[in-house]
Design goal:
The complex is a heteropentamer, with one copy of chain A (319 residues), two copies of chain B (274 residues) and two copies of chain C (260 residues). Chain A has 319 residues and is of the alpha/beta class. Chain A is globular. The two termini of chain A are 24 Å apart. In chain B, strands 6-7-8-3-9-10 form a six-stranded mixed sheet, with helices on both faces. Chain B has a four-stranded antiparallel sheet with strand order 2-1-4-5, with helices on one face. Chain C is mostly helical. In chain C, helix 4 runs parallel beside helix 7 and helix 9 runs antiparallel to helix 11. Chain C starts with a helix and ends in a 10-residue tail after the last helix. Chain C has two domains: 40 residues, no CATH class; 209 residues, MetI-like (MetI-like fold), CATH 1.10.3720.10. Classes of the chains: A alpha/beta (319), B alpha/beta (274), C mainly alpha (260). Chains in contact: A-C, A-D, B-C, B-D, B-E, C-D, C-E, D-E. At the B-D interface, strand 6 of B face helix 8 and helix 9 of D. The structure holds adenosine-5'-triphosphate (ATP) (2 copies) and magnesium ion (MG) (2 copies). The site of one magnesium ion has 4 residues of chain B, from helix 1.
């Protein structure tokens, strides 16, 4: 059958949180579902999203929270399959400041790194502070990115703590066995504790209009992702790593594997959005952004579980 | 001056002033009045720094006089003087062109096909004694050689008005005469108006119909205008043996010498004058 | 053209550009909006944002930091460029040996170097200055290097025959002769100094215009992004004016208009 | 210095630099490793990576894309720079009016513009080319603009008196006279063209050296990052050689050595 | 030549060749042998393009001869000739310095305090008749004015050897004489070795102790060397009335004229020669 072409903009392909999108390509799941998918790597989730809004890509593989955020800007985006059930954000204390900081409460007045001001990591931090009874503005926020800059800043103690993602967290853990972690949403425990439910991380989403007009492609994508998720949970981390392209694994395989092991529980088993999680996203963003708080967003419009459910009923996806 | 011929270049009381630092103004030439008829050969002589080059620049349209007017063939001059060929006092060859290309460009600009332009350029280089130097870039030529390439560059265009600023300055006496005869030949064959600046009074008299003397600057003026009634065609070397030549020379020389000494005294005043 | 007329023309250009921007972002032409407001905001919103920044005063702190970084990057980068440019031009062997390495270095994407700068210079202003320096340096260097080599050989010979030492040649011949080359590169590099500072902040900082812009980007506030860029550009003009003043002062000897 | 000796020196510099790098990243000095391998990798690993890329052939595809982007950016950017530079220099009014806007534009951080380029030019090579063009253009533009203004006034007057039209002046006077200015800027901008392409890929792409570098960075594979930068730099030298060849050809008329 | 005096400049069979395109070589000067004693004034005359400037460049150390040697005060010359002052044929003033700064720089280089250097520079400008032009940049001066600033720039340093390439070329006859007398005065007061290139044979004889004639190029040689036995001190103008002067002039002129015509014939061969 003639394959439809779909371009997926990935918000930073190296991040383990986006692994299912890449793995699906490696496993050939997209082709099986009748799609020719091109993955384009962008620097961050918001760049990926802009690529889709600008029309140069069809679907974003990125964090769901942007859908909510953009609803406040009257941009209708809709997530149709969620592959991360936990957000994977980790609040880590710099090895140089381990002794001073024992809980989130100690963060008042400290310098805390986030990937970028205004990013998900920033909002997450503000939410945590608020939840722990601190003024969200009481800590000074420094953008340090997600990569080596963040690691350097943490190692040198230029910042007191940081919100990080994998593999950076694993790198730090590898160098510092006693690394102090204040909140680890790679785990079910902390995710539930912080958000009171599963909190959606990476998802495939696009404009509501696209989802509507490209029902077939969206369904195919959903099927491919669900198949991949099932494959992930039925294979060992080593198997998964073996499937990933060399340039993404890099030379330090041990590091990648360790990070992967830390991350695997994060991947969703169902591909479904937990409505509580969606509400939590809104809550988080309302905290940091008055604009979102005021916007009267109907969260239920920002996602749909319909395609996942259809996949299940037709039995194409997860076995 | 025979009034039948049109005036090729006319300066009507042209005054030229330069702006100096501190908003002061230096009047180089004041109320210069000069008319060069078509086909007339006028030599300008004057002490160094009196404003000879300035006058040529005005006639070329490169400088606007602060007061007075310039007419070219009875038309007021606005912008460049398109009828004139100008051999500059300073080096003005295109350093990125070989000697032959420097000469040929004068024709190429008019649309002459390149092959033909090169052929003529080679002929011109040969007449100025540089046939063997066609492929040299200007920096590989001696001072006198560069000047002669410049001469060929101007002459090849066959302009109606020739402005020449010390064209034979860096040449030896012999070559000067050869070049002078070449110029006269050309001018006789196809009469042009020539404005010729030189420091060599003998050369001026030997070549020109009229010799114009300028006073020392600042505010230099035209202070003398002699007709040279020597018969044409002249041979530059032989004309010097003429008695009339000597009388004229002595007469002009007297005026000139006085002027130079005056200028020297004027311009060498102690500092603070400016 | 008189100063007033010139200014008028300049203002006119700005007005037309802003008007077009406003129209294209708000009025649909041929059935669609040419510049989607999501990407381009519109001049009124941008102006609002700028006014808000200045009226609340939040901008000053960020602006001061960015300006300071830019100026440091500019001064350090161009001084280094001038020094190394002169040095290379006067030491043809050194130049020949290092030439490929300089060119290689110039091709390194500075963005990738950000972690190393953060490591060496910390997250404060110095890592941003370093980023700016790596941009400014090369622009100035290449021009000064060429400028020194372009010195008129007669004038140079004259200097040498007058008995100038290498240092005196530098001061009395090479330096003045290479000045217009240097200033040309300075005009280019003023902009790049600012770009370096902003990009540096963008990659990791706690304050500065780059930080503001990134924050605005994070929440999809395009008006904020554009406002940041405008404030930036306006200040570049100011720095450039300072450069032009110095240039005029140092190049008085050049022929300008010929006569009254 | 003979060619062989020069080459020897150059190789020597490279060897020394690599040796220092290797030592500093592996042997602790004064109790600590000066260049932490986590940030600096070491030459052997980098070399391994390069060899692997070339032996498996994966690099070619990426390299080809990046080179193509760089060359396009370089050619388009410098052509535009030359054209606009000449235009501005010959139209002093246009130049005066637009001058501040050009300088403002030059100060815009290109990284921030990436989404707009993606909007206009898609995610393929053209958005990267656009980014490179915005860097190259300004460098060439400012130099050509200045170069045209530096034409010797006597030579220019001579051209005008020979009856040259504006076009002929351009071809026979301004262009050859501004050439050395132009080439100086081209040497600078070769590097910037590549930087533009790589940064563009770094911000969003499916292939190219910038993409490779970003992937490597994402998994903290510093050797990969450095390997990418090395391959890049090596190719810049090649492009620069091509520019130098053209330069030599066009500037034959310059005085070089004086005598045998 | 009185052998008691040391030799200031000696060219021992110096041959100078230039590399042309296509690996061809142009031999400008062949086996030039010339010795200038300390305190001697030697004028060089020759057809244009014969290699006069080339010889001065060699004596200045700016050009290395392809064969032969250069000795300065009996030392082989390596690098620049630090004892020489060189007035170039082409414009060589520093365009970014005013006239007075251009002159003062010669002293400042030696470490003279600026105030004193400026004072002397002003005095020198006055002697060359430019006292009122001290604050002008070179582009605001006329050709002859620039040359005179250059003259002052060289003379103020009081070098032991003077190399002068057509120093009075763009000056009018009167100013030439004034400058010539100035030069002679200086030279008499504090004897220097002078190598003086000129196209004006009368000037050469009037000024020099010896007049050297070069043949036309390529491969030009020194073909004549005349002693001028006119008594010193001389007044440049009056010496021309001397009978001896006229004889010498006629004699040298005969040789020179022939040479120039030969050179003209040689170098104007048709294209293809090069
Ligand atoms: N750009 C300028 N600014 C100020 N003064 C100038 C400028 N150009 C020329 N002058 C002055 O104008 C006067 C006339 O200059 P001009 O070049 O016409 O002299 P000239 O007669 O050609 O002299 P020469 O025989 O030495 O070439 C001189 O005193 C000179 O200093
Ligand atoms: N760089 C060069 N390359 C090739 N040939 C050169 C170079 N410089 C000078 N020549 C040639 O050498 C010869 C001597 O030149 P030089 O400048 O010494 O002549 P000159 O005697 O000073 O002539 P003039 O009286 O015209 O100044 C000339 O034929 C000239 O073409
Ligand atoms: Mg003059
Ligand atoms: Mg000469």
């Amino acid at each position: 059958a003639a394959q439809s072409k779909v371009t997926i903009a990935v918000g930073g392909g190296a991040c383990l949180c986006y692994l299912p999108t890449v793995l699906a390509k490696q496993l050939g799941e997209y082709e099986k579902a009748g799609l020719a998918v091109e993955l384009v790597d962008l620097k961050g989730g918001s760049d990926a999203l802009k690529a889709v809004l600008g029309g140069s890509a069809d679907v974003v593989s990125g964090y769901f929270d942007h859908c909510v955020n953009l609803a406040a800007k009257r941009q209708e985006l809709q997530a149709f399959v969620v592959y991360d059930r936990y957000p994977g954000l980790v609040l880590v204390v710099s090895p140089k400041h381990t002794s001073e900081i024992n809980s989130i409460k100690d963060l008042a007045g400290k310098k805390i790194g986030v990937s970028a001001p205004g990013s998900s990591t920033d909002f997450f931090l503000k939410y945590l502070l608020k939840k722990n009874g601190l003024d969200p503005t009481s800590a000074s926020v420094i953008g340090v990115g997600l990569g080596a800059t963040a690691v350097a800043a943490m190692e040198q103690g230029q910042i007191d703590a940081a919100v990080m993602l994998d593999p950076s967290v694993t790198v730090l853990q590898g160098n510092h066995a006693d690394l102090k972690i204040l909140s680890d949403t790679r785990t079910q425990h902390d995710t539930l504790a912080v958000f009171g439910g599963e909190y959606p991380g990476g998802a495939l989403y696009s404009t509501a209009a696209w989802v509507k007009s490209h029902e077939k492609e969206a369904q195919a994508l959903t099927n491919a992702i669900l198949a991949t998720l099932a494959w992930i949970h039925s294979h060992s981390p080593e198997d998964i790593m073996a499937k990933m392209p060399d340039e993404i694994v890099g030379k330090n395989k041990a590091l990648y594997l360790a990070a992967l092991k830390n991350t695997i529980p994060m991947y969703s088993e169902t591909g479904k959005m937990d409505p509580k999680g969606a509400d939590a996203v809104l809550a988080v963003f309302s905290e940091g952004s008055p604009e979102v708080a005021k916007a009267n967003i109907d969260v239920s419009k920002t996602y749909t579980n319909r395609l996942v459910e259809q996949a299940k009923t037709t039995g194409q996806g997860a076995k | 001056m025979d009034t039948a011929r049109p005036t090729a270049v006319a300066l009507d009381d042209a005054t030229v002033a330069f702006r100096l630092a501190n908003a002061r103004v230096y009047t180089a030439v004041e109320k210069a009045r000069l008319a060069v008829a078509h086909g007339e050969f006028v030599a300008i002589v004057g002490p160094t720094g009196c404003g000879k080059s300035t006058l040529l620049n005005v006639a070329a349209g490169l400088l606007k006089p602060a007061a007075g007017a310039v007419r070219i063939f009875d038309q007021p001059l606005t912008g460049l003087n398109r009828d004139a060929g100008y051999l500059f006092q300073a080096d003005a060859l295109f350093p990125w062109k070989t000697a032959i290309d420097n000469v040929a460009i004068g024709l190429e600009i008019k649309g002459t096909p390149r092959a033909k332009a090169l052929e003529q350029a080679q002929a011109w280089l040969t007449s100025v004694g540089l046939g063997a130097f066609a492929n040299r870039y200007p920096h590989m030529l001696s001072g006198g050689q560069r000047k002669r390439v410049g001469l060929a560059q101007v002459l090849i265009r066959d302009p109606k008005i020739l402005l020449m600023d010390e064209p034979f300055g860096p040449l030896d006496a012999q070559t000067r005469q050869v070049m002078g005869n070449l110029l006269l030949e050309l001018w006789t064959a196809d009469r042009k108006a020539v404005l010729f600046v030189t420091h060599d009074l003998e050369e001026a008299i030997a070549l020109a119909d009229r010799v114009v003397i300028m006073s020392a600057g600042p505010s230099s003026r035209i202070i003398g205008d002699w007709r040279v009634e020597l018969p044409r065609p002249r041979d530059i070397f032989e004309v010097r043996l003429d008695k009339q030549f000597h009388e004229l020379h002595r007469e002009i020389w007297g005026v000139l010498k006085e002027e130079v000494m005056k200028g020297y005294a004027q311009s060498s005043q102690a500092a603070g004058a400016e | 053209m008189s100063r007033a007329a010139l200014l008028l023309c300049q203002v006119l250009v700005a007005v037309v550009a802003l008007a077009l921007w406003q129209v294209f972002t708000t009025v649909p032409l041929f059935g669609r909006i040419l510049l989607p407001p999501f990407f381009f905001s519109n001049p009124i919103d941008v102006f609002d944002q700028i006014v808000k920044w200045f009226s609340t005063g939040v901008i000053w702190k960020h602006l001061a930091i960015t300006l300071w970084e830019s100026i440091l990057a500019f001064v350090i980068g161009s001084s280094l460029g001038v020094l190394v440019g002169f040095w290379f031009a006067r030491q043809p062997r050194v130049a020949a040996v290092f030439d490929p390495y300089v060119k290689m270095t110039n091709a390194l994407p500075r963005v990738v170097l950000a972690p190393i700068f953060a490591l060496w210079f910390g997250l404060g202003i110095w890592s941003k200055v370093a980023l700016g320096v790596t941009l400014v340096f090369f622009i100035v260097f290449f021009n000064v290097y060429q400028g020194v080599k372009e010195v008129s050989s007669t004038v140079l010979d004259n200097g040498r025959m007058l008995g100038m030492s290498e240092r005196q040649l530098m001061r009395h011949v090479y330096w003045p002769s290479a000045l217009s080359w240097m200033f040309s590169s300075l005009h280019t590099s003023v902009g790049f100094a600012v770009v370096g500072a902003v990009v540096g902040e963008y990659l990791g900082a706690a304050a500065g215009l780059g930080y503001l812009i990134q924050q605005a980007e994070g929440v999809f506030d395009v008006a904020g992004v554009f406002a940041g860029m405008f404030v930036l550009s306006a200040f570049v003009i100011l720095i450039d004016m300072a450069v032009t003043l110095v240039e005029r002062r140092l190049l008085v000897w050049r022929p300008t208009v010929r006569a009254l």
